[in-house]
Amino acid sequence: MSENHFQPKIVAFFCTWCTYTAADLTGISRLAYAPNVRVIRLMCSGRLDPQFVLAAFRQGADGVLIGGCHPGDCHYQEGNYKARRRIELLRAVLRDLGIEDQRLRLEWISASEGEKVQRVCNEMTEELRRLGPLRLGRPQREAAELAGETR
Amino acid sequence: MTKPKIAFYWCASCGGCEEAVVDLGEGLLTVVELVEVAFWPVALDFKREDVEALEDGELAAAFINGAVRTSEQEEMARLLRRKSAAVVAFGSCAILGGVPGLANLYEGRDILDLVYHQVPSVDNGDGTLPAPESRVAEGELTLPAFDATVRTLDQVIGVDYYLPGCPPPAGLIASAVTALVEGKLPARGAVLAPDVALCSECPRAATKPDKLLVRAFRRPHQMLIDPELCLLAQGLVCLGPATRAGCAAACPGGNMPCTGCMGPTSSVVDYGAKALSAMASLLDADGEDEVAARVAEIVDPVGTFYRYSLPASLLHRRVRPAARDEKEEVAP
Asked: Minimal Cα–Cα distance from A10 to chain B, Å?
């Protein structure tokens, strides 16, 4: 597959109150954006467990996008601040593990910013297309395959 | 009645797990009364042939410590698997990859280059590297192959029980051996330690504030640590909230923060991700710059949060520069 035809897979975690609603607005407004983004709705960006990001990478995502309410606008007061702290600390870990910063993106997108969803999804898709696929190795066998083995 | 036979073996480890068995002290004599030690290279003069001579499944249990890095370790793990009714992954390295697992931050080739070429105290004029096979005047010499990646024991063979810790606490070892002898082991796959967070048994638990807020992360050498107060309340990166209990909080009890050797509880898939999440949640920082400043205070984030668990993590290792087979051996 040549790099130009590479279609990155992006897993997006959008909070239901702001960014997910904005993504609905994008659709209602008939704003087309890259189909590379698979959206998962969370109640709040503060619900994002860093394990979700790693699981997405492990299962084939080339990038992970997180969308939450603007600072000060969180439906639950401070979930988006928690998300920011967790993601920045996770980013520091990922950097040392050889995963580029562009593969993990945090954006504040309010319910009225349908065009920002379009722009961010398109930008990230292009950026990852330039970066190429994330190739994770596997240990030869996964623990789960061996769990039942006794001999 | 013949006594059940057990084996101890070490793979990529420091020897501390072997020491932990010896730390049973006089308790070890009780163990030897109850079981027959059929193989224990670090302490007794048995050879691989002695293990090969056993019937399949003849060993009641093999306690294997250490991660798996070489072809020899893999062969021995497979051999012991075949000969044992139960395999116990013994200690952090066998279960999670341990400190040797941090080598997964580097390429195997680079490690050999550093150790055999670049270390200032090494005098290696010919630039010799260890090779699985070398021809010398006297004939062919062989060495175990050095795998590209460190693996946990259960990424190599099926594992029945997990005995966590670096090294496992004596009390947990004793109760595991007792359960084995009495045939009272739990269901296969069990971790032979409590399934709650370390804070539950920490002597400092009572001083943990209802709302913990960390204004700045500090390191033990930068401060005088209050011997009573919750270490998190003092700004130390104590991983107790993300770590399994079972060690009686030995480190916090000794005025040092928990580094997570007991691994996660059963509700967690990736220890490091959960540990960093716990620490991030406690931060008293909202603005972008403030958050960046606190994150910068964590020196060596992977070594902090994945100190014992990089090979067992969802990513297993640092992303390799080019897609290559994980099992590729490092040839000179």
From this structure: 17
Cβ of residue B279 closer than 8 Å to a chain A Cβ? yes
Query: What is residue B324's predicted lDDT score, i.e. its pLDDT?
Result: 47
Interface test with chain B among A44, A52, A88, by most B beta carbons within 10 Å: A88
Share of chain B above pLDDT 90, in %: 85
Q: Do B158 and A49 touch (CB under 8 A)?
A: no
- What are the tens digits of pLDDT across the range B171-216? 999 899 889 888 898 999 999 999 999 999 999 999 999 999 999 9
- Determine the distance in angstroms separating the CA of B276 from the nearest CA of chain A, rounded to an integer: 7
DSSP letters for B241-295:
GGSB--STTHHHHTT-----TT---TT-S-HHHHHHHHHHHHB---SHHHHHHHH
* Domains of chain B with CATH codes: 5-99+148-181 (3.40.50.700), 109-147 (no CATH), 198-305 (no CATH)
DSSP B169: P
Which residues in chain B are contacts of A57 at CB distance < 8 A?
314-315
Q: Which residue out of A47, A81, A107, A150 would a mutagenesis test of the B interface target, given it has the greatest number of B Cβ atoms within 10 Å?
A: A150
- pTM as predicted: 0.92
Strand partners for B12:
B67
Structure tokens at B215: 């204004």
Q: What are phi and psi of B112, to 5 degrees?
A: -65, -40
Of B57, B151, B285, the CB nearest to A139: B151
ipTM: 0.92
- Say how many C-beta atoms besides its own lie within 10 A of residue A25's C-beta: 20
Nearest beta carbon to residue B81 from set A54, A141, A151: A151
Is a pLDDT exceeding 60 seen at residue A56?
yes
Domains and CATH numbers, chain A: 8-146 (3.40.50)
For residue B114, the 8-state DSSP code is I
**CB B88 within 8 Å of CB B163:** yes
Contact yes or no for A84 and B291 at CB 8 A: yes
Burial of B279 (0-12, 13-18, 19+ CB in 10 A): buried
| Distance from chain centroid for Cα B77 | 16
Q: Could you give the CA distance from residue B305 to residue A12 in angstroms, rounded to a whole number?
A: 25
Q: Which residues contact A33 (CB under 8 A, 6 or more apart)?
A: A26, A117, A118, A121, A122
Give residue B280's identity as a one-letter amino acid code.
A
